[in-house]
Amino acid sequence: MLGRGCSPPGRIPIPDGRKPPARGGSRSLAGMERPPAGTSGQRQEREPPRRPVPARIRVMSSTEDPRLSKLSGICLRFPEATRTDSGRHASFLVRKKTFVYFLDDHHGDGIVSICCKMGLGENEEVVRDDPKRFYLPAYLAHRGWVALRLDVGEIDWDEVAQLVAGSYSLVAPKKLAKLIGD
What we know:
Helix content is about 20%, strand content about 20%. It is of the alpha+beta class. Strands 1-2-3-4-6-5 form a six-stranded antiparallel sheet. The relative contact order is 0.12.
C-alpha cells in the first residue's frame, strides 16, 4: 500500500503541479534540433517508378536496325503486345510474358536473331532440319525456344510471322490467343 505522499513505482512527484509524462506514450521532440532540410535525417520523397512508354506510341529511332523495325511491326499487331528495349536487344511481351526476343550480338557472338517459343521437342527438330538458319538458344532451349538467324541469307518475313504467331499463341493467355485465330 502506498502511504501519503508516496508515488506509484516509476513515478517521480513533480513539485510545481505539472503532470508527469504518461508511461509508454510518445516522447516530445521539444527542445531537440531537427536536421536541416535535404539531409539524410529527413524522409526523402521518392520518384514513382518509371513505366516503359508503350511501344505503339514510341517513336522509332532512325538508327534502329531495320530488321528490328520490321519485327516490331509484326509483333505489335497482336493483342496487348508491348516492346521493351535493353541495349541492342528487344523483348516483345504479352501481359508481362515474353513471346519473342530480338538479339543483336548477344554476349559477343556476332549473331543477329530472334528467339521464339515452340512446343518441347519441336525446336530440336527445326534445328536438325536447317542448322544454318536455326539454333538452340542458351538458357531457353530446354523450355522449347528456338532461334532464327536474321544475319544469314535472305529473310523470309512470312516464316518469321508464322514463328511469332506460334510463339504468341503458346505464351499469351487463352482468351488473347483465341483472338489471333492461328
